[in-house]
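BUG: 3D viewer hangs when loading the predicted structure for this chain

Environment: internal workstation, default settings.
Expected: structure renders.
Actual: progress bar stalls at 90%.

Input used:
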Amino acid sequence: MEDFSVDDPSNPFARFAFTGKVDPWKPGFATCTAPPRLITVNSDYRANIPPLSKGVVKKKRVGVVKKRGLGKKKSVDERKSKPKVLNAHEKKKDAYKRKAPNNTWKPPRYEPPLIQEDHTHDPWRVLALCMLLNRTSGKQVRGIISKFFDLCPDAQTCIQVPSNVLEKEIRSLGFQHERTKKLKRLSQEYLGKSWTHVHQLYGVGRYAADAYAIFCNGMWNDVEPEDHMLNRYWEFLCETRGN
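Structure tokens produced before the viewer hung:
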């Protein structure tokens, strides 16, 4: 170790030796506002720097967390809350009951039309479309919907179509193995006589149940959909009173 005096012109650290101001006319020399003292430096002229304060260390750690993505702000889609499930009271609503044979409801056209509007004559198609629309976009479903209903025009045919053939037809939507199993089980239960409310069917959540109530039963004024596209049509019905 080697000691330098603050008054020694060969001391390169004299500027940093005091907390006082530095004389602009005498660079490298401290003013008399601070008492003279010595500063110890290493032989390689690196000053002994005090350890970082806790605040600085904490700030650096936060930076590391953000760099790893843990502190990254969530996108708008990530901040959206999950759809609420039907509660016990809602499940008993007539809007979700099996469509009566004498129900002649025909939903009015909306621009741009929703995919379900052209298939309300068969409630199974509305449910199948909701299952296909899950975790994908309407544009993708529109690209395969014509061929899909040519292959599976009704629930009975959907059960009979080989799984590998159906998977190939809906592969572009993704999750084709899972979707095929759900479609076949939904079709099987739909043709049964044991269910009274649509949410009792396999794979039918709030979105499909609300779509069924609106497009099939015509009881749009008894539900409050959460899906953004379905909500647009529901608002349209509220404005036009269903006409």
